[in-house]
Specification:
This protein is an alpha/beta fold and 538 residues long. It has four domains: 6-174, Rossmann fold (3-Layer(aba) Sandwich); 180-241, Helicase, Ruva Protein, domain 3, CATH 1.10.8; 246-359, Zinc Finger, Delta Prime, domain 3; 382-512, GMP Synthetase, Chain A, domain 3. The protein has helices spanning 6-9, 22-33, 51-63, 77-84, 101-111, 133-144, 164-167, 180-194, 202-210, 214-228, 234-241, 246-257, 261-273, 278-297, 309-319, 324-343, 347-359, 367-380, 383-388, 410-430, 434-439, 458-465, 467-481, 494-508, 521-532, and strands at residues 40-44, 90-94, 121-126, 150-156, 171-174, 197-198, 231-232, 392-396, 405-409, 441-446, 450-455, 486-491. Strands 2-3-4-1-5 form a five-stranded parallel β-sheet, covered by helices on one side. A hairpin with an 8-residue loop joins strand 8 and strand 9 (405-409). Helix 12 packs parallel to helix 15 (309-319). The two termini are 66 Å apart. The relative contact order is 0.06. The structure holds zinc ion. It is an enzyme of class 2 (transferase). Its EC number is 2.7.7.7.
Length: 538
């Protein structure tokens, strides 16, 4: 017997054999039973999901000797002719190569003649989106006034390229992409019937490489069978398909955990030298990261992942090396890489750079934590704290004509510090909304008789100046200190104060923190990195 490729040999011949398109089958069967056969059908969907197959089964169903019937017999002359592709009344036209207006005109002429023996004359036009606009126009005329007993069946992978005028005259069906499981199941059926033994997850690998297309998966199966004979092994599948072995993926991820860029690049080089397909590697690595994520999040990952026990154990160990958000970031990098690689002639370099980028991914900082950290830094940098490192100090603004001094003694300061904390707590207790204002002010002076609060912006100062608020401040200060305190509010020039206080601190205490103004750019960047994490790109 002649060799027949699996995709043809195992092509569904009846509606009941169609996989994954139950929603369409049901509608078509109902229409046939009610004798409501349309003049034009359009089947859309990705490659290899069964668009022309569905069209052919429909052609059989309406032309079957026992029909029109919800399920063609597949045995009568009409069904057999259609199956073999030599029915004179069912014509299959490739839209990609017959896309001109002349082709459609010729078609329009033949349409006028009645079917020779069949019930319906059927035109199946594949890749119909390839027709030129003029050809579509010519076709439209026929669709507007279709001759009796002529049925058009269009198939397309790009529904968006079909003019609205055509769509509105067709019954449109969108075929679903086939799931991984559906494809694996069909491959199993084929292997069983052909007496081929399959090891490990070979069929899963083939289905995955087929990327949702049954036809592609079946062609790949043919290739693997041609290479392996009647016994399919995992290793041979990897070799034929050009996919990377699981152990290699594990190794790559191990280097990622250690952030070992050199080893990562070396491994990628070896993979390339072995002749593996980088597109597959990118996809497989993304899938591996997804598995790590599932293992990390789920209590029963085995229910969600199709894995062998040993692989699951490795995943569990490796998932401890990543934060969940790191895995998410890495996954997005790989998704972008995959689409960039498809569009570029520099695929290898793009992949290498992305792998290095993966090694630099760091966990995100929670915004709450960052705000807390910044606040604590701000508190550390308030002039008061620095002043406390000295025994006694005069804060002097460095403008010669506007000398202003704030006297603070160490002891008083320590007391006033704790008193101020108590005042703040008491105010927040009495009027919680005040807390916001208090975080925005600085104690300029605080002694037996007065409390001077500095505000860096006028709006906040005005809010506090509001008589109720000011009175509250005075009441609480009196309550805490047990005597009247004169509370005053000052508008301060924030940068000047901090710079002056810092430099004055510096003159008195060489170990004091270096003022911001004198920090080198590198130090400021380092400070930012300490707070936010991240990576210097430029
Ligand atoms: Zn039949």
């Amino acid at each position: 017997m002649d060799f027949q490729v699996s995709a043809r040999k195992w092509r569904p011949q009846k509606f009941s054999e169609l996989i994954g398109q139950e929603h369409i089958v049901r509608t078509l069967r109902n229409a046939i039973e009610l004798n409501k056969i349309s003049h034009a059908y359009l089947f859309s969907g990705t490659r290899g999901v069964g668009k022309t197959t569905t069209a052919r089964i429909l052609a059989k169903a309406i032309n079957c000797a026992k029909g029109p019937i919800a399920e063609p017999c597949d045995e009568c002359d009409f069904c057999r002719e259609i199956k073999q592709g030599n029915s004179v009344d069912v014509r299959e036209i490739d839209g990609a190569s017959n896309n001109g207006v002349d082709d459609v005109r010729e078609l329009n002429e033949t349409i006028q003649y009645a079917a020779s023996s069949s019930r319906y004359k059927v035109y199946i036009i594949d890749e119909v989106h390839m027709l030129t606009p003029q050809a579509f126009n010519a076709l439209l005329k026929t669709l507007e006034e279709p001759p009796q007993r002529v049925v058009f069946m269009f198939a397309t992978t790009v529904l968006s390229k079909i003019p609205e005028t055509i769509l509105s005259r067709c019954q449109c069906f969108e075929l679903k992409p086939l799931s991984h499981k559906q494809i694996v199941k069909q491959l199993e059926v084929i292997c069983n019937q052909e007496g081929i033994k399959v090891g490990g997850l070979s069929l899963e690998k083939i289905a995955k490489t087929g990327a949702g297309s049954m036809r592609d998966a079946q062609s790949l199966l043919d290739q693997v069978i041609a290479y392996c004979g009647n016994k399919i092994e995992n290793d041979s599948v990897e070799e034929v398909l050009g996919v990377v072995a699981r152990t290699t993926l594990e190794k790559l991820v191990e280097h990622l955990i250690k952030r070992d860029s050199v080893k990562l690049i070396e491994t990628v080089q070896t993979i390339i030298t072995d002749g593996k397909d980088l597109n597959f590697l990118c996809r497989d690595l993304a899938e591996y990261l997804r598995s790590l994520m599932i293992v990390k999040l789920s209590e029963k990952p085995e229910a969600l992942l199709d894995l062998e026990a040993g692989d699951l154990q490795v995943l569990k160990e490796q998932s401890k090396g990543f934060h969940a958000d790191e895995l998410q970031q890495m996954f997005s990098v790989l998704c972008r890489t995959e689409s960039e690689m498809k569009r570029s002639s520099l695929a290898q370099m793009i992949f290498e750079m992305s792998i290095l980028r993966l090694a630099d991914v760091r966990p995100f900082h929670r915004i709450d934590d960052m705000i807390r950290e910044i606040n604590s830094l701000e508190e550390d940098n308030t002039p008061k704290k620095k002043v406390l490192t000295d025994t006694s100090i005069n804060l002097v603004k460095d403008e010669p004509n506007n000398l202003e001094s704030v006297e603070l003694s160490t002891n008083r300061c320590l007391d006033s510090d704790s008193d101020w904390q108590r005042i703040k707590q008491e105010i927040c207790k009495r009027k919680p909304v005040f807390k916001h204002y208090l975080t925005q002010c600085k104690v300029m002076a605080f002694n037996e008789s007065k409390l001077d609060l500095g505000f860096s912006d006028l709006i906040t100062q005005d809010q506090v100046k509001n008589s109720d608020n000011l009175q509250l401040l005075r009441d609480v200060a009196k309550f805490i200190c047990n005597h009247e305190i004169n509370v005053t509010l000052t508008l301060i020039d924030k940068p000047k104060i901090s710079a002056t206080s810092s430099s004055s601190t510096l003159t008195n205490n060489k170990k004091a923190i270096k003022p911001n103004r004198d920090k080198s750019e590198a130090e400021i960047i380092q400070d930012a990195l300490d707070v936010f994490g991240g990576l210097v790109i430029k």
